[in-house]
Design brief:
- This protein is α+β, with helices and mostly antiparallel strands.
- The protein contains 4 helices and 13 strands.
- Bound molecules: zinc ion (ZN).
Length: about 220
């Protein structure tokens, strides 16, 4: 039996949820969930970690925080992250295509970790979201429009990940601007040109309609 996360056990439990928590008196934002497999007797056990959904490995390697880890891209906007694999067990490399349920490696405690567990994260539009919301979903069915609609309008002067996404999408469409996360004159100009090409009011403000059009582009590319 398997789960979305582990090969041999269909039960798992979350040992640390997504969100803010206090560690050693310091407040920290946990960008994913920590999971362990659960044996029949209810005890936590290690197991092979499997791909949550099908996609392409875009990173696989080691860093001091994540330990041995890999990242899988499922489409232009959705990435999953798996951390703390046991040393020497990571089975995938950058560029590999993986299918849902395929073994990625064995659960371990490498990197910043105090015990064997899987850190699992989902990044949507470059932002870490609560993975639990997606546990029973096919990632291809995630309604990204809802996410877009929840976003505030982006206009000149804005900064951050959302702006970077906007710039990336504009470049998908043929703009050649720097993805520097800062909404300046070049971004405004590129956005207006894009809006004009789509018959949207060229106001250089990214609202729901503009985001919708931008995403269509991304899907077709
Ligand atoms: Zn974690």
């Amino acid at each position: 039996m398997a789960s979305r996360f582990f090969k041999n056990y269909d039960r798992y439990k979350i040992t640390y949820p997504f969100g803010s928590r206090v560690i050693f008196g310091k407040k920290e934002h946990h960008t994913g969930v920590d999971l362990v497999a659960v044996a029949e007797n209810g005890g936590a056990v290690s197991d092979y970690v499997v791909a949550f959904d099908s996609g392409e490995v875009i990173e696989a390697g080691y860093n001091s925080r994540s330990g041995y880890y890999c990242k899988i891209r499922h489409d232009e906007t959705l990435v999953t992250l798996y951390c703390h694999f046991k040393k020497g067990t990571l089975r995938v490399k950058k560029g590999d295509k993986v299918v849902k349920g395929e073994i990625l490696g064995y659960m371990g405690s490498t990197g910043r970790s105090t015990g064997a567990h899987l850190h699992f994260g989902i990044s949507l539009f470059g932002e870490w979201v609560d993975p639990e919301k997606y546990f029973d979903k096919d990632l291809s069915e995630v309604n990204k429009l809802t996410v877009i609609q929840e976003r505030k309008l982006l206009k000149r002067g804005a900064k951050g990940e959302e702006v970077k996404l906007l710039q990336t999408l504009l470049n998908f469409h043929g703009a050649k601007i720097e993805c520097d996360s800062s909404f300046g004159p070049a971004t405004a100009k590129a956005l207006a040109a894009f809006q004009r090409s789509r018959g949207i009011t060229a106001d250089s403000v990214a609202g729901v309609v503009t985001w919708q059009e931008l995403m269509k582009i991304a899907k077709n590319t």
